[in-house]
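A note from the maintainers: we've had questions about how concatenated examples are separated. There is no special marker in the raw files; a new sequence line simply starts the next protein. For clarity in this README we add a label.
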Amino acid sequence: MRQPPFISRRLTAAAAVLVVGAGAAACGPQESKGDSPGASGTPHKGGTLTVLNSAPQEDFDPARLYTSGGGNIPSLVFRTLTTRNREDGAAGAKVVPDLATDLGTPSKNATVWTYTLKDGLKYEDGSRITSADIKYGIERSFAAELSGGAPYLRDWLIGGADYQGPYKDKKGLDSIETPDEKTIVFHLDKPEGEFPYLATQTQTTPVPKAKDEGTKYEQHPLSSGPYRVVKNEGDGERLVLERNTHWSAATDEERKAYPDRIVVRSGLASAVINQRLSASRGTDAAAVTTDTNLGPAELAKVTGDKDLAARVGTGHFGYTNYIAFNPKVKPFDNPKVRQAISYAIDRSSVVNAAGGSSLAEPATTFLPDQKSFGHTPYDHFPAGRTGNASKAKELLEEAGYAKGLTVTLTHDNEKNFATSPEIATAIQEALKKAGITVKLRGLEDNDYSDTVYNVKSEPGFFLGGWGADWPSGGPFFAPIFDGRQIVKAGYNFNSAQLNDASVNKEIDEINKLTDLGAAAKRWGALDKKVGEQALTVPLFHPVYKRLYGKSVKNIVISDWTGVLDVSQVAVK
């Protein structure tokens, strides 16, 4: 699961929250670039870019990072087989070649993918990058001591489920072949048409076996990108990057690498970050943030200041906040009850509780409203802007609850504008108009995650959210609705515990498609079909509003990440 783009490592879906103040996780921005003099003008090389963040860039090892598209800060150091297209808006949701010459050549049934490396690829020490290095980089990500990365390679590669990494099994994975120094071949246990997206994960970063230091590698990973690590303090709390002189722009069409030096300072309070970016004094004039949003109050102040307003980047990321039902729990086993709640929802009040229309957009589909996801507009239970209480009452009567109904809504106590008390209260007030009394059950953050994403303790009615590991329907839709992904002993995200043979079959058929556009249309159609069952109530998609310093130029915010791309900015 992809995080909102302020978190570089994988957490549970319950921890994926819109934070005022961390995929990653989410739509086409209509106002991506800032309009200030700092954002316009011809960008030039030179200077120092400062990144002011709340969360440290922990586990700075390509094996341990859970990023999509290569990440933001990580992609300055780690190149991957493919990467995200570094352009504004919808164009930035495309996958493009990076170390590889193309997006890969699939076999007829998409179970074998072959990649050829570009010429002239080098590490920071001048040595050549080979296909064997990419194979080894992937294999070390299977080691228990380097866990934390995306699970897909373990799930997709033949033999991946049992492989323990090169420290225990020196033979390596037979399902990854390197017939020569420029060719790498992957053998999958089932068709996967979206493998080019997976190849953007940092696990495909090359790592030469001779330079691997296990858990210590993160202190000075060998750079394949435009910058090298010269300092890593406090487990990523302070990072200093300088130019990799052996990186060649001729082999890299995506990263601009304008600044000479990049300094990442983390562990800062959100208010402090926004204050520093607002004042934009000294080195902060050439500063950005990759994980700190403007909150409702801060945004109101910024909106009233023309100069500050021109220094706000707006982005969208593939993420949906929703109400989750567990049909195993009464009365949510009755479809008419779920439909009644769907009709009763007042999305205007929910959006206001999420920070207002500048920070949240109402949703009626589970898939985010981006083309790359295959978004197909539908509203099976039209509630208008403020809810349809009369239709909800009608359905409740049909369900046998003519005198009303009392239910409990579980939410997170964290003030996160997503699964928090504010959202829960907005829902409580809307459902009251339809004769539904909602009792609120707030849990502390860790307890909330452990409770709602466990089959044994999952409540019947709770707030959830889901983000995309990459901008397509596959990793967004399948974990929530594929019955074969129900986890009975661990974190389970299929809250409805849906195990529909026709849905599972269609997921398999879509996964065979290597035409990503055709696949997207099928994901959208499947979303519309499943949406009729009212297994979730989509509420809103978050919008990211972030300040940047007055000397920062070349603002690029793609629909893949929703945040400013540090590989594109200039400060001089």
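[label: protein 2]
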Amino acid sequence: MRPADIEALVVPGRPALRGNLLLTAVKRPDLRANATHSAVRRVSLDGGEAAWTHGPRDSAPAISPDGRWVAFLRAGEGQGADGSPQLHVMPSDGGEARRLTSLHLGAGEPVWAPDSRRIAFTARVPEAGRYGTPDADGETPEPAAEAPRRITRMDYRIDDVGFLRDRMQRLFVVDADAALEPGDLEPLTGDGFDAAHPVWTPDGTRVVFTAPPDWGAAESDARDICAISAEGGEPEVVVRCEGYSERPAFGADGTLFYFGQSFEEHHEAAPTGLYAATPEFGVGPVKARRLTDAETVDCETAAGPPAPRGDDVLVAVRHRGAVELRAVGVDAAEAPLADLAVVYADQAAVRSFTLDGPVLAAVIATPSTAGEVVLLGDGEPRVLTGFSKPLRDKGIRPMIELETTAPDGYPVHGWLVLPEGEGPHPVLRVVHGGPFTQQEWAVFDEAQVYASAGYAVVVGNPRGSAGYGQTHGCAITHGFGTVDVDDVLALLDKALERPDLDASRVGIMGGSYGGFMTSWLAAHHGERFKAAWSERAVNAWDSMLGSSDIGYMFVDAYIGSSPEVQRHRSPLSYAAQIKIPFAVVHSEQDWRCPLEQAERMFVALRRAGVSAELLVFPGEGHELSRSGRPRHRVQRFEAILEWWSRHL
């Protein structure tokens, strides 16, 4: 796989299923347009797929309960700012799409009411005079000429979105038959808090959603489950949650299931569990019960909401690099992973899934595919699509599983991706971000590009990662640069036992937390490596505390509040110890690990006489390597390969 082959990374989104109609929005990078193309495809339950819409930016299909209509988002037609996504509907048997919204900053994913007539969604609503809207005098100022922002809270912005308090996310309900003019829609919720994850009650009278405690009165990671009449009125809290909550879904009997995290301790590495509650509308909040164990079960919320089916609920679970489908009994009480029935488990990652009666469809990625639509049932899984054929044609290299132990005897798990040929090959130790996420049993474009260029790539899940239990994830709380270092090096040593790897030519690289680890290892174990590539890294916890969008809570949770400890755990403090060539790579608009983290490290390295380079990508945020502009993604790969060609 070469850098430009990212165009072959065709990724289907969460499928929509009703009867024999199965739809998915398929995304792919388009280098010529320098954008991500997205269109809705129809997948046959007998296999094969065909165009449903032609894009170029169609997404989030949702089929009405009666099967007659499809709602979806379409962007790029000039409605709203920069062609923001707007809600459309079209007949399920084909025909022209009809636009329902003309919101300035676009609409969120549609959610049908049980009556197949109304649709709920959320949307950010800008203050007057901001983001291209007229001010009180009827003038539309340019961004640089907008009035100053008065900021009184720490949660005022977030990476990949921007400023928040002047464009709060609000809840809307629209009639799918309505002929609306711009400005006709009124939000159901106020502008003091973000509403998220709407779902209808089974009787269609209310919309349930998540909101911060006390309607956003103060900064908080927590979110309660709330409700409001579909006709409008005052919202109410119906489930007071222990911490964070998301993706509520109703069972047929009115039981509400949702994903949640307890913030009692170590909340940055808290596993996500499945909860259940029975709301009592108009009475007051109820308390939920946790159905899954906090130590062994970590639900993958990106795969979609819980899916009730009779006596159990389907959820996706992260487990040792895989994402599995498991069934949780509705009467379960903190059930461990071993007690959850396996619906699908393999050396693969379930990206999303949907259920309609007995029919279960999922998007599943494997070590050689970015995602295919698969029909799951009592028999063997049946792959319905061939979206990854162009990718497989590029010569995808297999993932070789590695298992070893750290110096303290702790088990370490990961993979090796080998290039073609006999070797001995130069080696790249690539460390993932997070840290509370996992390297997966799925095609990883970075490993494939590096392996195609002749490098052996070592990846894995050191302590601090997700997918191996809560104790594993919390092992580096107030301990960055300790046992995680042991695990990273132990896996590298395991790979270097092979005679086809060259232990004298090893590079270290990673992004975000992986960038932190790269900087730390270069300073403390630099003799192991020829050079380093540290990307979007945390290098200084003291400034991260105030400059990062999540710094005010993340740093205390993971590092601690002591300035002395923050300096002790900062790679910047040891920049003068680095002796190997060092690339500092960052995005100009990264608000998760802001640009100052790179600038401070680069200057410190150069002042110490290190052979250091700074590479800055304009207009990109923290997610450049995954969802940045396609040409920047290719240019990044080209820069990485050029760097390693010089140093390995």
